[in-house]
Design goal:
- With 313 residues, the chain is α+β, with helices and mostly antiparallel strands.
- Helix content is 38%, strand content 12%.
- The protein contains nine helices and seven strands, in the order E-E-E-E-H-E-H-H-H-E-H-E-H-H-H-H.
- The radius of gyration is 44 Å and the shape is elongated.
- It starts with 5 loop residues before the first strand and ends in a 5-residue tail after the last helix.
- 8% of the residues are buried.
Length: 313
């Protein structure tokens, strides 16, 4: 069964694999942007659809080498953002970089003392990197790509329908199961390399920590003195305190009462109604106290009655 030459304006380009055939769809790129400097030249850019998931820039350049030299390859326009806009942004940003290089701009001038300090400081330790190898980037099925040729004639040759399927070029980067095997080995480096990486990373961390401490103006146990020779004092505590030590001012509470603001610790109260027998004992004691108070009130009333009785003789 023969393949069609064109499908909805796309040129059908079959790709021969050892056990299957893949189909690429290509057409000339038509930009809707009105930018004066488009990222994709309209007469030299080939738009590809259904790019193989593990395709690389080098493989696409080799596959279309028969048409001409490929200047650059860009994958997945939707994932990377709009390249037309990115091109405009990069173009406008170049001016700001030139402005920053203006010798008349404000720059900090290092004194001789600061330069000598920089010379005396030891160089930061270098971190031993973990081994890394380039791997193929797997993309989504049906991914798109843009190929920019050096001239417009190469684009015309690339859009000519091929007579037969062309084989996909081979690359040094592993593919298929070999890619996952190499990725597995890379994520499990030898222990001596991991140890060297961790040790050097800790050395760099300690170097940065010591450098930040040297730059700090506050040191424990030392009072902070300003340019006029006055010691910075803060109010607080019983007898006062400063940020570093030295002169202190007592708190207002201590000046008024000569007592510290420390509170006495409350003694823990015993729980009297936690257990069932405690509740029963509490109720029984309440009844006993109620009866006792009742008898005491009766005796007090009788005594009052006797004292108020009329005795004429």
């Amino acid at each position: 069964m023969s393949l069609p030459k064109l499908v909805s304006g796309f040129t059908v380009i079959p790709v021969a694999y050892p056990h299957s055939t893949h189909i690429l769809y290509a057409k000339a790129h038509a930009s809707s942007s009105k930018s004066t400097k488009p990222t994709f030249p309209p007469n030299r850019t080939l738009f590809l659809v259904n790019v193989p998931v593990d395709a690389t820039e080098r493989e696409l350049s080799l596959f279309f080498r028969y048409a001409g030299t490929v200047e650059r390859v860009l994958f997945d326009r939707n994932e990377l953002g709009d390249p037309e806009l990115q091109g405009d942004t990069l173009g406008s940003g170049s001016g700001s970089e030139e402005d920053s290089d203006d010798p008349d701009s404000s720059m900090e001038v290092d004194t001789e003392e600061s330069q000598n300090k920089k010379r005396d400081e030891p160089a930061p330790p270098a971190v031993v990197p973990l081994p890394t190898n380039p791997h193929r980037t797997l993309r989504k099925t049906g991914a798109v790509a843009h190929l920019v040729f050096l001239d417009s004639s190469s684009l015309t040759k690339a859009l000519v329908p091929p007579q037969k399927a062309r084989s996909w070029p081979s690359s040094e980067e592993p593919r298929g199961l070999a890619r996952y095997r190499a990725l597995y080995d890379e994520q499990r480096p030898p222990l001596d390399i991991v140890k060297a990486h961790a040790d050097t990373a800790m050395e760099l961390y300690e170097y940065k920590l010591a450098k930040s401490r040297r730059k700090s103006t506050y040191r424990k146990g030392e009072a902070i003195v300003d340019e006029d020779g006055f010691t910075l004092v803060t109010r607080g505590g019983a007898y006062g305190k400063t940020l570093g030590g030295g002169v202190a001012v007592a708190s207002k509470q201590f000046q008024a009462t000569s007592k510290t603001g420390s509170k006495k610790k409350k003694e823990p109260k015993e729980k009297t109604s936690f257990y069932a027998f405690q509740k029963a004992e509490k109720q029984r004691q309440a009844i006993v106290d109620l009866k006792k108070n009742f008898e005491a009130d009766k005796a007090r009333i009788e005594k009052l009655k006797q004292s108020r009785r009329f005795k004429p003789y």
